[in-house]
């Protein structure tokens, strides 16, 4: 009697095990599928009295799949249409071609009273640095000759040339954001954007970690 | 005696199988705690497998109305829900300040939304597969329109 009861329990155990196996197998496949993902991280740190920190982590694979599904305003099938009038006669494609074939160096340097802008190519990256200046006023509220300059904000953008090329690989009046994302995902770990503006710092970077810390 | 034992085992087995079937997709959990006098406290646990079944009882016009509202976002949400399965453990958004904390993450195949705002807390956990099922259901109604 005991042995037949034991058989029943054994059969029940096997049936339960068989029933649960697919879930265990499914859990195993899903957990191992995100090994070599590239993640785009955005971190905004505010040092004001609220002290807010925002962290956003987006897998590039996910962005690549979602982007073609967004069809709104100027964004269609992962491409953004540029209004010709906004380009003010600048032929970006010709400009890019010129930059591509030129050796490393600084292409644009604009130094003005309020801001400095530098565009350069270095080690396969396109660099854009913008510094906004703040001039300390004198006691009478006017700028004196000896007024001291401090940085109001500083923006540093570092984009791999391959990504820039991919961005302009679409039609004449469009930016191929999807192609740029694909080029970015093939790239190694890199810091893309760094902004320091008053109380806020913004950092955008790419790596293979799913968390930003 | 033996018959009784077999009956008990049969009943226990049926109960176990029914439980496993009901909870095969995990649970949806909603916790709301307002830590102030008169604040509400809601704690809800629902087997996720019941949601797609329950959706069949939602009147067509209500679902079609929802589908019409979500028409533009449906393909995007559908892709996101499908792809989330590839990221079983990830933190997507985190906002921290002195009195507010928001976190959107995926842990063990469940989407978690955790909000703490001036002492009030809301925690929602939904299996990714349930989101997929619901979106699929709404999409079907949208196509049927």
Largest sheet entry of chain A = 8 strands, antiparallel
Helix content of chain A: 25-40%
User: Which term fits the overall shape of chain A?
Assistant: globular
Strand content of chain B: 25-35%
Taking the alpha carbons of the first and last residues of chain A, their distance comes to 61 Å
The gyration radius over C-alpha positions of chain A equals: 27 Å
Q: Could you list the spans of chain B in which at least 5 consecutive residues all have pLDDT below 50?
A: none
Strand order of the largest sheet of chain A: 2-1-11-10-8-7-6-5
List SSEs of chain B in N-to-C order: HEEHHHEEEEH
| Uncertain regions spanning at least 5 consecutive residues of chain A | 16-35
Question: How many separate helices of chain A?
Answer: 5
Q: Which geometry of chain B do the CA atoms define? A: globular
The proportion of residues in beta strands of chain A is 35-45%
Q: Strand order, biggest sheet of chain B?
A: 2-1-6-5-4-3
Number of strands of chain A: 11
Short description:
By secondary structure, chain A is α+β, with helices and mostly antiparallel strands. Chain A has helices at residues 2-31, 60-66, 92-101, 161-167, 177-185; strands spanning 39-46, 53-59, 75-76, 79-81, 105-111, 115-122, 125-135, 149-160, 174-176, 190-197, 200-207.
Please specify the SSE layout and strand pairing.
The complex is a heterodimer of chains A (213) and B (145).
Chain A: H1 2-31, E1 39-46, E2 53-59, H2 60-66, E3 75-76, E4 79-81, H3 92-101, E5 105-111, E6 115-122, E7 125-135, E8 149-160, H4 161-167, E9 174-176, H5 177-185, E10 190-197, E11 200-207
Antiparallel strand pairs in A: 1-2, 1-11, 3-4, 4-9, 5-6, 6-7, 7-8, 8-10, 10-11
Helix pairs in contact in A: 2-5, 4-5
Chain B: H1 2-22, E1 27-33, E2 41-47, H2 50-55, H3 60-69, H4 74-84, E3 89-96, E4 100-107, E5 110-117, E6 120-127, H5 128-144
Antiparallel strand pairs in B: 1-2, 1-6, 3-4, 4-5, 5-6
Helix pairs in contact in B: 3-5, 4-5
């Amino acid at each position: 009697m005991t042995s037949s009861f034991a058989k029943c329990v054994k059969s029940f155990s096997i049936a339960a095990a068989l029933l649960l196996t697919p879930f265990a197998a499914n859990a195993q496949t899903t957990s191992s599928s995100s090994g070599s993902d590239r993640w785009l991280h955005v971190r905004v740190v505010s040092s004001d009295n609220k002290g807010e920190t925002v962290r956003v982590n987006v897998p590039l694979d996910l962005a690549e799949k979602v982007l073609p599904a967004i069809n709104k305003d100027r964004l269609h099938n992962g491409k953004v249409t540029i209004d010709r009038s906004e380009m003010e006669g600048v032929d970006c494609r010709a400009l890019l071609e010129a930059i591509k074939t030129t050796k490393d160096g600084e292409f644009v340097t604009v130094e003005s009273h309020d801001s400095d802008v530098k565009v350069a190519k270095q080690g396969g990256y396109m660099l854009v640095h913008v510094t906004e200046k703040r001039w300390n006023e004198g006691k009478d509220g006017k700028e004196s000759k000896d007024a001291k300059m401090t940085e109001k904000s500083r923006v540093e953008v570092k984009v791999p040339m391959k990504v820039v090329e991919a961005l302009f690989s679409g039609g004449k009046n469009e930016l191929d954001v999807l192609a740029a994302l694909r080029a970015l995902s093939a790239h190694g770990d890199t810091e893309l954007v760094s902004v320091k503006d008053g109380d806020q710092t913004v950092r955008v970077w790419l790596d293979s970690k799913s968390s930003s810390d | 005696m033996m018959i009784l034992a077999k009956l008990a085992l049969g009943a226990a087995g049926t109960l176990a199988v029914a439980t496993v079937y009901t909870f095969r997709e995990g649970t949806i959990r909603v916790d709301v705690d307002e830590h102030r006098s008169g604040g509400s406290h809601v704690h809800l646990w629902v087997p996720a497998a019941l949601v797609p079944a329950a959706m069949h009882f939602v009147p067509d016009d209500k679902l079609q109305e929802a589908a019409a509202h979500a028409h533009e976002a449906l393909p995007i949400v559908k892709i996101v829900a499908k792809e989330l399965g590839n990221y079983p453990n990830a933190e997507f958004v985190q906002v921290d300040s002195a009195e507010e904390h928001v976190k959107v993450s995926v842990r063990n195949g469940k989407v978690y939304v955790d909000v703490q705002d001036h002492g009030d807390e809301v925690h929602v956990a939904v299996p990714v597969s349930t989101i997929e099922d619901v979106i699929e259901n709404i999409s079907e109604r949208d196509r049927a329109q």
